[in-house]
Structures are given as structure tokens and as C-alpha cells.
Amino acid sequence: MSVLDLARAEIRALVPYSSARMEAAGGQVLLNANESAWAPYGDQGLGCHRYPDPQPAALIQALSALYGVAAAQVLVGRGSDEAIDLLVRAFCRAGEDAVLVQPPTFGMYAVCARVQGAGLVEVPLAGDFTLDVDAVLAALTPAVKLVFVCSPNNPAGQPVPAMAIRRLARALAGRALLVVDEAYVEFSDAGSVAGLIDHHENLAVLRTLSKAWALAGARVGCLLAQADVIALLRRIMPPYPLPSPCVAAALAALSAPGQAAARERIAAVCAERERMGATLRRLPGVRDVLPSQANFLAVRFDDAGAAYRRLFEAGIVVRDLRRYPGLGDALRITLGTPAENDRVLATLGARP
């Protein structure tokens, strides 16, 4: 059984939109796409009067090398959010199929499922916010076509061991596509599971340049999966997902100097994570700081609402987690610069 057999039959049979850029790439006089012949004011060589490549070759090659997969196994789009939406639309029939998630987790999996009219199966994380593989498998129904796993988890921060991913992928073969969201994996000791894609055709991995690569404003992310899955999603993807300036920003970040700078920032974030965690645990009113392998800390307070207000009044905005299951006393604090982190600590009562 091919993993494509899990996808919607009408999507597999769909004749995709063929854009002018797809039909006739190259050439010197481009008169086939109804573009302006003149670059806009201030273009600075970006060529924004021309439609960008649907899947820019240079960016695909850079990401392929970075993540250790074949170029045909990479789909780039507007953050990882677009890939989540494409997966749900391609694999889930409204009113019939379902998505399985493990709350507390990233909310876009559920949002995309509900927009598509797909069902939502929720299997809570264990009490220590680790993935319960047995519980996931016990909750699986024939309707479930996608299983999303966030590693490290957002908002708790715990990674999922590769052994658990392998076990899930094997158990879900022929039944569901396993999608591992690695938005924060650069900050984790666990490492990526992208290397398992060639061994499990029902495994896909989400990556983003928004976090460790400091490109949240450029909205560049990708899906790593079997080439057949990538080709299927391209059928339903808008023809020009990434603006030319965003592609240029991504290529600059992925250059040798850009990668060196990213490594320095990642090391700084991890060092601040240790320092902040140790200091926060000693503060009055802090119950606990959850173990984290991401660029944030989930912190339990005696009175999370009061702590949130105190920070907000000091001009510091953190994420209120009290609506998430198991985190009714918690705030999520993204790790900032050392000076910003010191300001958080001082506001919460740390002595200089």
C-alpha cells in the first residue's frame, strides 16, 4: 500500500493549476504572465515585478543540504502553517476523516482540521508532558489519516525520543501519515528525525526558519516527506507561495556566514535557557519550571494571572498558558537577549 492511498481520491486525480512560470521557465523576453515589464521603485534588484519561482531551486537545494534529504523531498511554503493546512486538505475528507493530536500542543493542527471539517481525536500528553505512544495507538480509529507530533512540544518544551517516533511510524504504516513538527529542534539535544523519512514512507517532518534562523517575518518553512507526498501537495498549493524578498532573506540566512551566526544565537539561547531556568526556580511565587529543549520556558506560578499582569505592566509580554490542559497555572516565557531576560527576572522579584 502506498502512502498516497491514504490521501483523498479527488486530490490524487486533480489536474493542478498550471501557472505561466511553470509552463515556460527561462527565456529572455517574458511576455506570458501579464507582469509589469518594469521593476517597482526601490526594487534593488529583487525583480519583484516578476512572479517568483513556485519552488525556488536555490532555496530547495540549500534546505535539502541543511536537512540531509533529497531535493524532491522538500516542499517550501509560508511557514510550516501552510504545510499543515495542505496536509489536512489533501488527506482529510470533510465529515469523514480525522486528525489526531496530543494536547497541550500547537493549536494550528486543530484549527486546520476544523476548517476542513475533519474530526479531531485528542490524546493528552502524559502528566510529565511526554508522549504516550500506547495511548495514541489505542485511540487510533480508521478515520484518523494524520497524526501530528510536536517535538520539542509547544508549549511544554519536551522532545519526543526518536525511538518513539520509529515505533509510531511502524504502527501507523498503511493507516495514517505521521507528521513530526520540529519547529524548535535546533534548540534540542534530541536531533531531527528527518533521516528516518527514507525508512518510513508514512513519515513527514515540518521545519521552519522562523525560530532558530530568526526569520519569523519572512514566513519560510518547509515539509520534508517522500517525493510522492511532496508532488501531491504541490497539486493544491497556490502557484507562488514565497515572495522574492523572503527567498532572498532565507538564502542569506542559509549562507555560510548566516549559518555561523545562527549557531552562535542558538548557543546563546541554550545558555540563557539554563540560566533563566535556574534563577526562576528560586523566585518566590514560582512553583516549577518545566524541562525545556526549546527556546522558551513554561513556568508554573502560585498566581499566574498576577505574574502575567506584573510583567505586562512592566512592558513585558509573555504567553498565558492557563487555557491549556495541564497548564492552568503556567506562563510561557520566550528566551530573549540577556538584558531582556534580566528584566523579566527583576520584574518577578529576582535580586540583582
From TrEMBL:
Modified residues (N6-(pyridoxal phosphate)lysine): 211
CDD domains membership: AAT_like
Known EC number: 2.6.1.9
Domain of life: Bacteria
Pathway: Amino-acid biosynthesis; L-histidine biosynthesis; L-histidine from 5-phospho-alpha-D-ribose 1-diphosphate: step 7/9
Catalytic activity, as annotated: L-histidinol phosphate + 2-oxoglutarate = 3-(imidazol-4-yl)-2-oxopropyl phosphate + L-glutamate
PROSITE patterns for the chain: AA_TRANSFER_CLASS_2
GO molecular function: histidinol-phosphate transaminase activity
Protein's UniProt keywords contain Cytoplasm: no
Domain Aminotransferase class I/classII large: 47-347
Keywords, in A-Z order: Amino-acid biosynthesis, Aminotransferase, Histidine biosynthesis, Pyridoxal phosphate, Transferase
Entry keyword Amino-acid biosynthesis: yes
Cofactor(s) for this UniProt protein: pyridoxal 5'-phosphate
Record InterPro entries: Aminotrans_II_pyridoxalP_BS, Aminotransferase_I/II_large, HisP_aminotrans, PyrdxlP-dep_Trfase, PyrdxlP-dep_Trfase_major, PyrdxlP-dep_Trfase_small
Cross-referenced HAMAP family: HisC_aminotrans_2
Subunit-structure text: Homodimer.
Family the UniProt entry places it in: Belongs to the class-II pyridoxal-phosphate-dependent aminotransferase family. Histidinol-phosphate aminotransferase subfamily.
This protein's name: Histidinol-phosphate aminotransferase
Organism from which the protein derives: Fulvimonas yonginensis
